[in-house]
């Protein structure tokens, strides 16, 4: 190490700056005495060590603030990193978390296996049953209500304003996983949520090439989560942060295309006799239509119904596997939110760890296929699904 080694940012002339944010791969930074004093006083503004903050990670977080309409955001190592760190920030031993039955499989595992074994009290409720939320939350010990906006995989839409009111009346905070719906369709903070978490691996990144998470909300609460990220070590790598930042530059473009495709696919599937049910908020028979009309953002008359579709084929899980494996444009793989259309069967992927009874409680049907619509031409994708269904009739 030689004295005066310049930091990357000092290499630009005073009159130029990069169009694209540099990837600040530096783990550590030179500090003057005043900065050391600020850090030691508990300040989080200085950039001094990568687990605390990093300029590239900050740039990605600022973009999430724009999309979610948040005051502050902090990136984490993964979506699970965001969820676990947020919950561990908000609750202490003996406190209660009330969470929806309809959540992502690993979130379910965290709620039913890990958190109770560490001394937290976790109650589960049907996301759609407001009376159940009220009676589970109203015991005076509840610190957190936890729900997915549009749930993975069955696309149950939570009544966020109502759940927020129930939580706030009992002195609890509402944490919302907005991964499936995305801020293109819903901004939970504007509907009463206190904190929003994401698997940024999905639609925010949009290219299936980085694992990341984020928590967004009001500055003080996000700062508390940031302090926990520091001690739990659930920070994001700057290179992954750059990929998420880059993905977010095309967020609206991608989501407008994939929302339109999802709408087209859902309508086509709903017209088939060999499809038992289709779940998508755009469909006339969607059982949460009243909530959708209140909480989903819209373009004129049309709600932004999201890029995910779930449908159940006649013939159960085995036929679901056969249908998926006949697809040529759609690709069978877990995960979602990329430019490519991904399909999966919850029973053997995102929700494999649930018992059959837990899957029933989460309203996951035998034969359900989850589709994450990509940006391919909609017609091409619809034809692909029709061909696959026809050939497995
Ligand atoms: C709704 C939802 N939340 C959280 C996660 C976890 O995200 P990650 O894989 O980035 O940890 C996922 C992953 O599929 C998810 O679908």
> Kindly state the mean pLDDT as a whole number?
95
Assembly type: single chain
Q: Unreliable runs, pLDDT <50, ≥5 residues?
A: none
Strand arrangement, major sheet: 1-7-6-5-4-2-3
Count of distinct strands: 14
The rounded distance between the terminal residues' Cα atoms is: 68 Å
How would a textbook summarize the main sheet? 7 strands, mixed
Shape: globular
SSE order in H/E notation? HHEHEHEHEHEHEEHHHEHEEEHEEHEH
Total count of helical runs of at least 4 residues:
14
Q: Helical amount among residues, as a percent range?
A: 25-40%
What does this structure look like?
With 393 residues, the protein is α/β, with parallel strands linked by helices. 38% of the residues lie in helices and 16% in strands. The protein has 14 helices and 14 strands. The strands form 3 sheets. A 7-stranded mixed beta sheet has the order 1-7-6-5-4-2-3, with helices on both faces. Strands 8-11-14-13-12 form a 5-stranded mixed beta sheet. Strand 9 and strand 10 (302-303) form a beta hairpin. The radius of gyration is 22 Å and the shape is globular. The protein starts with 32 loop residues before the first helix and ends with a helix. 51% of the residues are buried.
Explain briefly what this protein structure is.
This protein has 393 residues and is of the alpha/beta class. It contains 14 helices and 14 strands.
């Amino acid at each position: 190490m030689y004295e005066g080694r310049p930091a990357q940012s000092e290499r630009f002339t005073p009159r130029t700056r990069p169009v694209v944010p540099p990837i600040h791969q530096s783990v550590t930074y030179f500090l003057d005495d005043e900065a050391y004093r600020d850090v030691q006083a508990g300040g989080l503004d200085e950039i001094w060590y990568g687990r605390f903050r990093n300029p590239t990670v900050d740039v990605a977080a600022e973009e999430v603030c724009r999309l979610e309409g948040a005051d502050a955001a902090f990136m984490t190592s993964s979506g699970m990193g965001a969820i676990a760190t947020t919950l561990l920030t908000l609750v202490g031993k003996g406190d209660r978390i009330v969470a929806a039955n309809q959540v992502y499989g690993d979130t379910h595992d965290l709620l039913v296996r890990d958190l109770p074994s560490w001394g937290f009290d976790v109650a589960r409720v049907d996301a759609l049953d407001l009376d159940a939320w009220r009676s589970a939350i109203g015991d005076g010990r509840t610190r957190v209500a936890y729900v997915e906006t549009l749930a993975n995989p069955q696309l149950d839409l939570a009544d966020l304003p109502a759940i927020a009111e129930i939580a706030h009346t009992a002195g609890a905070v509402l944490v919302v996983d907005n991964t499936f719906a995305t801020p293109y369709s819903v901004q939970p903070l504007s509907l009463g949520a206190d904190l929003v978490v994401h698997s940024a691996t999905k639609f925010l990144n949009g290219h299936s090439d980085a694992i990341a998470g984020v928590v967004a909300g009001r500055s003080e609460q996000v700062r508390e989560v940031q302090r926990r990220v520091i001690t739990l070590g659930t920070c994001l790598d700057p290179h992954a942060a750059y990929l998420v930042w880059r993905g977010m530059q095309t967020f609206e473009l991608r989501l407008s295309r994939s929302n339109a495709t999802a709408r087209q696919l859902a309508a086509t599937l709903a017209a088939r006799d060999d499809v038992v049910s289709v779940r998508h908020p755009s469909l006339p028979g969607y059982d949460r239509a009243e909530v959708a009309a209140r909480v989903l953002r819209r373009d004129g008359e049309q709600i932004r119904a999201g890029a995910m579709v779930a449908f159940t084929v006649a013939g159960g899980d085995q036929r679901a596997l056969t249908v998926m494996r006949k697809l040529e444009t759609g690709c069978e793989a877990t995960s979602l939110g990329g430019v490519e259309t991904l399909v999966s069967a919850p029973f053997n992927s995102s929700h494999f760890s649930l018992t059959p009874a837990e899957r029933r409680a989460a309203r996951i049907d035998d034969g359900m296929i989850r589709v994450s619509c990509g940006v391919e031409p909609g017609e091409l994708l619809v034809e692909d699904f029709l061909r696959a269904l026809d050939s497995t009739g």
